[in-house]
Structures
1.
Amino acid sequence: MSKSKAKQTCHVVGCLDRHTSLHRLPAREDIRAKWIHFIYNGNIPSSVSKNLVVCANHFASDCFSNLGQYKAGLAMRLFIKDGSIPSVRGKDTDEGSATKSALAAVVHHVACQTDPPATRRVGTQLSMQTLQRNFKSTEVDVRSSPVASPRPCKRARMELDEDKENPLEGSSFMDIPDTLDPTCEDPATVLTDSANATLESSDSVHKMAAYIVHERCLLELFEVCPVCQRITDVQTRSRSTFLSVAQQCRHCRYSRKWNSQPIVGDTPVGNLQLSAAVYTTGSSFFKLKKIFRAMRMKTFPYDTFRRHAQTYIEPAIVHKWKTEQADMLRRLSQQQNVIIGGDLLLRSDSPGHSAKFGSYSMMDLRSNTIVDVQLLQSNEVGGSKHMEKEGLKRSLTLMEERSVTLQSIVTDCHPDIEKLLEEANITHYYDVWHMEKGLSKKLGKIAQKKACEKLNKWLCSIKNHLYWTAVSSPFGPERVAKWTSILNHVQDIHTHDDPVFPQCLHSQNTSTDKSKWLTAGTQAFCKLEKVLTSKKVLKDVQRLSPHYQTSSLEAFHDVILCFAPKNVFFPFLGMLCRLYLAALHFNKNVGRPQATSALEEGECTPQPDYVEEVLDLIFEKVFPDPGPYWEAVLKIPIPEDLSA
């Protein structure tokens, strides 16, 4: 408190205090008006001075941001919180007497040998003086200060590390047997008062910034007592990523306990937050553990990660996806003639091998958003070859239950799906890319023969001709006529006998490369004609999609492989949750533009916005009461293991 303020007197009507901390009127007009109304007790004069002050006795104790430091003698003046309003007027009220007594308790005779300071606890925050650099005085006035005893030798700290499974423990660590969950702490032995150490979930503790702090640098803050500046006894207790430090001074009996993380209930936030971050971003716990081991950072075993996942993370992911999916299906039910695309992704790299899992994805092709993901296990459908039909059937059932009207569906060339959609009376189109991929493989093998090398010059043109045929033809017969015209075109003949497409649409330019044209009757032309005019190819050409393709679904399959690689085993529920995460990630970034320069890479980089939403759901809703969210998980039918 400055001298100028010490000479002032509180302007509140009836108060003559001039020794307590004084505070000037705030800058905000609404708060300033309430202060003036309180100072004059409602009788506001016509002219009000700008230098009005109010003493601290007229504020409740919760209006100060540093009351604890001020009471401990570690702060020179009180600071009120923004928006605080004086509310204590009479000196006999409970609030007034409480504040008065709190401010009167500031005087501490720290240096007096006959009157030692009272022992007290200081929550979980460091004092201001602890964070300051310690200065050693070179001149001591014996008339005003007692003779200090020699600084004792620094005692060895006793570290109680209870993470037995951590391979980084040294010989100085002592293991204490404990039957508690590795992520929970016993409030009676680790924490301070539960009212001070426990934070509610509404405080958004998982949004606090976190830093890497080395042990030596951290414990330097507790070596010296903040009251008498002498060496203190320090005891640490760790559990995975959580560290609790107990400091006690043998001289002035000062003590406190400090926690490296906020505590929600009995669980350190950092442990659950690390598990949730690894899971929701599609990372690998084992790779993360290798990184932590290399950096000598504390972590928890895989069993703890799985317990977090099953109890909190997976129920939150299922709830998040079901909520997003319900909103998408509700919007689709309000539209007419919805066009969707479907495709299956098998969990097998080699063709011909039976896969355990298969995921069938349904996409709204107008918005390129994933609206449904079905996970199938081979033993529940009679083999991996039946997965695609069963996945489509389940998705169509869901669409029908949500009253979604389908105009058409685009898939690959699968005979079982074709029969299913014919029975359901749904227009079925084939994806051009799937058909082009099969034709390109066949023609590529033919072009490798010595007598058919000329076909190499036509492979790209035939591929482009297939796409042009699908996009430019609204009807099946026209697609077939345009498709078969390629056989005349490769012979340098550009008029055709089919009246549907009698002539090529390109300009009649003379080619400079005469060697590229094929001749009828040669081996190359005969093999080309046999492939392009087979019954199956002509039938499939009629069903080519004229508007939308499933290329975006192939991009979504790449996202799935980022969250659930094929070379990693996942249980059924874990695999399903990773599919949901991949769908959330894809839908959140589907409208992001593609970068065309290095300056646009930041704006066009996919952002995991869904991760923050899932973390909010975990800490604010699922963690306090996981019961309702587990109901949705229990409704998911999980098939028996393949060995069963």
2.
Amino acid sequence: MLLSVKEILESRLLQSAILKTGKEFIADRSVEWVSVIESPVENFVRKNEFVLSTGIGCHEKTEEFMSFVKDVYDSGASAFVIATGRYVFEIPEEVIRFAEEREFVIIELPWEIRFSDVVHEVMTKLNELQRQDRGRSKDIQQYLIQKILEGKTLEHITKYIEQELGHSILICNEKKEVIAGGANANDVFALWKQMKNQTFIRESHHPVFSEIKRLERGGRQLIHLDIHSDADHKGDFFVLTEVGERLNEEQESIAEKAVVAAALWFSRSSAVIKAESRMQNEFLLNLARGEKMSEEHISSHAEFFRYDLELPYICIVGYPAHLKELINRDEVHAQSKKVNLERMSIYIREGMLYAAENIQRQLLFSFENDEVIVFLETSNSVTSDTVHQFLDLVERRFHHLLPGVTFTWGIGKEKDGIWKFSDSFQKAQAALEMGRSQRGTGKRLDFDETQISRLLLSLAINEEVQDITLSTISALVKYDEKRDMDLINTFIAYNYNNGNVSQTAREMNLHRQSLLYRLRKIETLTNLSLEDPDDLFLLNFSIRVWSTGVIKIEDNSALA
């Protein structure tokens, strides 16, 4: 006996759903599975699937939405259920006509109805219809799904599976890290390596995966199944038997059901984490931007995210140079640049949390565009030490997680007060911008260290100061661009060493005569004497004003 779309729509949960097309055919449309998917469809939808979608990315994009519906229709889906009210407010007429012409069932679902409830409803009906044929293993799957929907831990689930199977299992995530299970990880991984050379494979009975791999060595048997969720590989499921024991068909069927449950657990966990992460990110960005929020709103969200806003925090803003290059060359997980950017942001978040835990400090983390925004718990007495200890740990972690990516950091002020997140953020961002323009990539700049920079910035916008600066150093800048002699940095080093030629030559790794030649060239081009204190001050002041980046030398013509 098959489950029809009509029977699903008759459930109490879907009473408020609106059947847009295919009313005459819903009794004949059988449902074998239920899935949640967003564009692109590719090959992730099976025939006779009851497909749920939010239509994210298709808002006011009729052509993209039509293409999405066509792909679902071409896959042979039983029905396409679209949640309206967030990303899609009304199903376009073109889509309705397309579905009607092809006798394709489209259902409009109110946004308030959760997909997890619909999935649960459909799976329950499928279980009820197939219970007699599927025996004890189906009862097990129903139990597992129910426990997952109740929020039980994966450890709780695996213990139950091991009890029903009579064998130990092991569940790993996509990073090959052990998540749950009582099987010996070393034994499992040792046998797993051998699977590539000699493996018995049979087709699975379930659409979640296409094959079951089995390997026998030394009288023991290892069963492996991939765990897929949201069209991605989420992990691996292993069953390890003892010497002389093998899994029978019923036990393999139980293992299949367990993998379905594990996939649902990964999907639920991923959805919860992503939703909470987006909410956290938006809440913290609102605090940083100084958005108007009621005290009740702030308090409730802080309590939900377990943020202690009564602690003193200092804002740190980081810019990851070369992150896009790393994403572009990452071919291992290259489903799309968007997926990779999300993956990289997860790596960055993990590195931040790792560092905060090591120094036993609270951390509030956000990510906007190309900037990482952090509010780190601190105290008045050890602010600087705490921040630099934290950033040292972060950068060591990123060296392994994000090879080739270099961070530049701007540090705000903690003294503004516990609730002054916006002030601290603005100062951290200003310090970051000054650091990037004046010190380059990979540096850290505290807002407290920018007094002179801020003074120079205020002077740099004065037209008379600009004229004096340009008349003093324009010849040096043009000469550096043409001859690549780096006269500007030569003077900076010379002045920093109080005119000590030998010390400057050692620092710049130059021969003494080469340095003297450069210094004479500086005097010639500027008509200033490096022996005259007033000339020295004027040249140093002009270079520092120019280094703010406010003044641009537009004339880049070649020197005579």
3.
Amino acid sequence: MIPDVSEALTWLEANPHALKGIRRGVERETLRISADGHLAQTPHPELLGAALTHKWITTDFAEALLEFITPVDEDVDHLLALLRDIHRYVARHLGDERMWPLSMPCFINQSQPIELAQYGSSNVGRLKTLYREGLKNRYSTLMQVISGVHYNFSLPLAFWQARLGITDEASGKDQISDGYLRLIRNYYRFGWIIPYLFGASPAICSSFLAGRKTDLPFEQAKSGMIYLPFATSLRLSDLGYTNKSQSELGITFNRIEEYISGLKRAIKTPSAEFQQIGLEREGKRLQINTNVLQIENELYAPIRPKRVTRRDETPSDALTRGGIEYIEVRSLDINPFSPIGIDERQARFLDLFLIWCTLADAPQMNAQEVLCTRSNWNKVILEGRKPGLTLEVDCGSPQQPLADIGKSLFHDLRRVAVILDSNNDNQQYQQACDALVASFDDPELTYSARILQAMQQQGIAEMGLMLANEYRQMLRTEPFEVLNEEQFDKEQASSWLRQREIEASDTLSFEQYLAQHNAG
């Protein structure tokens, strides 16, 4: 069954203070759509600020793909209220446009022009757009307009001091990094529970498959949408945001040095496939380089070790400098039942699960074992609600019912919930546990089952537009809770000023800057 964490949980119950000060943040992506549900063809609105430099509102792959970023927060309710304020401000400044409430896009076809995100004339801004040009040419535009939610999480220094006996972050950085790598290995083994509970993309518009081959046994609804009856998150499948060529990179999560060297190796390894694209055509640059990864962020992974970077510092150099500071969970579909794409129950579950992943034993995994964990994920992604579905807890171990593994895990999570609730003097974590564990006895309670039922009744496009309209009206009329209009307006003006300062500070031509970047 799952690892025995009773000893670690007993320790945690004796040291509840070690969990005071958990830090978390959210990044939420959403497509801008027109009133009739089609992808917006307008540039990123100037009224929202400069996407290159705004603290809270930016863009991801395309001009029409918004991304909202919260500051780091120690309180779940405050975090989500602030995220909702960002949505409220944007809803007020989008004119007649709406925010698409689903992960998988609709009303889009391969021939539709999708403008890449633009970040001004600075070298760093042009590099960001060129990176997106490379993504488009490597993996297709449609894959890049799939939306998700990222959850950033870090444990307080007090946890590591109590658990590992370190004195401070600097001297204990290697031990802290080892602790987060343990978390990541357990996430690879058991993180399939996230799409099981919260996957919300069991169906796609048929236009999404236009010209693409698939062996998946899709069924078609009267509305024209196609779906898998027991699927949870097609976003995480090979149809969605994945890159099969990266499976050969051999990146592991046993030691921080190994992870960093694997990442750096991928940045420098030529790709025969991407060399065929070329670097330039008719005077237009097609990608940053022809290596397996253009930059480190191109590594598609369900979870990443992170450290806040300094100016001109790569993610791996930041990790080398200071070790792992936090982890980024990347497996969350947009929650269509929330106007902000995530809800409080999900955040509390993630806190519990990530704490458990840190406490549970996690034997080291070679590259093949990391790949092997993908089989469980794929099963849950494509048929997670199938009655009697079984999984391997470890590669090569006997199959066990998914429901039994899930309920056993929740037995541990509830003990963590009691500790967190005692620190907060409420029962919010326990309530989240009690609500979610029921999904293992009744898969119809999962997000994917609930959203599929609604999609079958209305169709994806119709349901998505209905929710977009409902959330637009809701957010435009709600009062702000944490931030206010004046603060947003001030940040909007400041972001444009910061962008102009960056543009004015460039001393190299873009060609020189790009050559320097690729040489680094």
4.
Amino acid sequence: MKFLPLDRVRLLEGPFARALETDLGYALALDPDRLLAPFRREAGLPAKAPGYGNWESSGLDGHIAGHLLSALAFLWAGTGDAEARRRLDAMVAGLAECQAANGGGYVGGIPGGQALFEALATGGAAVAELGSSEHWVPWYNLHKTFQGLIDAHAVTGDERPLRVVTALADWWLPIADRIDDAAFERMLDTEFGGMNDAFARLAQLTGRAEYAAQAERFSHRAILDPLLRGEDALTGLHANTQISKAVGYASTAVATGDDSYRRAAEAFWRTVVEHRTVAIGGNSVREHFHDAHDFTPMIDDREGPEFCNTYNMLGLTRVLAERELRPELLDFAERAIFNHVLASQHPEGGGFVYFTPLRPRHYRVYSQAQLGFWCCVGTGLEAQARSAAEWVFGVEDGSPAVNLYLPAEASIDLPDAALPGVRIRVDADLPHSGEVGISVDPDGSRAFALRLRVPAWADGLAGLRVNGSPAAATAVPGAVLLERTWAPGDHVTFRLPTGVRSERLPDGSPWQAFLSGPSVLAARAGDARLDGLFADDSRMGHIAHGPLLPFADLPVLDPDEVPEGLEPFAGIHDSRYTVYWPISDGDPAARTARLRELDDGLAVDEATVDAVALGEQQPESDHAFSGTGAAVLTAGDQRWRTTSESMAVRMRTAHARVLRVRYRLQQTPTAVGVRIDDELIAEERFDAATGVDAEVLDIDYPIGEFAGRASARVGFTAVDGLPTPAIGTVRSLR
């Protein structure tokens, strides 16, 4: 399918148009000079304004500037707002100034970034130490600059951002030539965003083969090869890291003509959408893919689907649909846009959501424009500016297509340039009403087929009429075609079902969500203890830290029972909510007993001052992880850290009395020294003589003497040449 440029589409009054305007307000509230401050610092130029804090001053400096370039381009195209275009041009000019001052083509906001990347040419230690608390994930960061400049050119047609980004790409090429394939592959173990996608898009824009070759080099074989073998090897992996790679696989297939990349992208899409995606269109818990056969973490955890994942899955879906339209691609896009995308921006002020918990009766928190600079702020800025508008309309097999039923209008050029185009307007208010009206207004009478999507949740388009008279249509996969000679003012009407239907979790476990039309429904569950609802600038402000409510008093429903008080989830804000409900499956008593078991961890959660899951990227970053000789281990969907030297995190310890460490014991002898601010508080040894039968155990250490400190460095060191046991979650407890 050929999707329409954003400047040919306008959203009409409704929740999506309001979200677009809210997004524009949030984008214009950001100060470009503050976002460009890291780039000027790295270029040796005086700052025009102080840089922002939060993630923008903790190693990921400059990443939001790249996101904002993309968002401003989309916003200008989608609204025509002159200030959005002025700021876009000014930011591109600012990056060009920094690039000139750097010399050689590099431009970035990463602390010491140019030297860091150029050191990669030697391979070895530079590659192994690419990710750190100082630099975080440098390729991921630099990718945002690549992507923002590419989008700025692709959307506006302006050659200036293309000149900046090609100079940046050319700076990298001779460095890459000096890195052997083994070292290059090791480099890709650290999250690198969609660099394969960026180089593939540059290859398509410029026709330069060396960019296509870089797209292939950035196609991480550790993920690519299992996909080509038809394996789902995603459990335990950081989800968004892999999604961005899959977007790049799909783009690389287009740039190179190598169909294996497309097959890998298709396999990834099916694995994630068909087996790992919940009702709202999101996936993952605590940013990682859990076991696809056990969705308990999705129901139990406060850190549900991450928004970046869904945004990037939409990007993957679009590249696949542009090559070959299949009904399930549009079904996923609709699900994600009507639910996760629309729900992830606050309607007043526009704050963006990082995690969307699906634990019953929990809530989500929102960024504040001058305080929060998470990754999901960046993708949120982009998503609200483009996701609905770019999917509503398209052209397939020469026919204008209506893909989503939401208020919008478009001007569509049909393939035969000698014939006039057509304007199409959609009027719909799903799920509140199933009545849909489509106005078709060609520039003069002409014959063509109008393609109308039939959603998977609808048996067809009921009562299909043109100008009030019944109309015959030809069914094709996922759509119907209305073939006729169209005249200005023609009007199509039909009905879509808006009754409530149910949907189990993907693993088939007895938890049920309810939907009406394209929308997931939820019930409000009060507004008590919405701690941190509007997040501050702390590193973990994006997590809804308020108390978890128990499962045991949830109503257990019969499979065909519909709870009261349901409304579209995307419209619920500033409130706790329930999306998934426990189902009896014929044994309510057993189901209630299982819910009580799930409550066993509530006391520990309530007593937790701070917790860090070692081996998980974001918690480690939030807690300033550092280590030497440290490695990540994966067991099922759980991740752990072990070290042959030392590792440490910074944790909150105010009012804490106990440090609880979860160990996973290996077969070989292990030993660990536990330290608080370098003071040894305990030493443990585990071997056959220890007599510990448990594979996983928690050990508590008293730390009351440190309770007066706001935070402390919690460290683990190897003892007597033995590696430490694998260490999972570390908690400071009241």
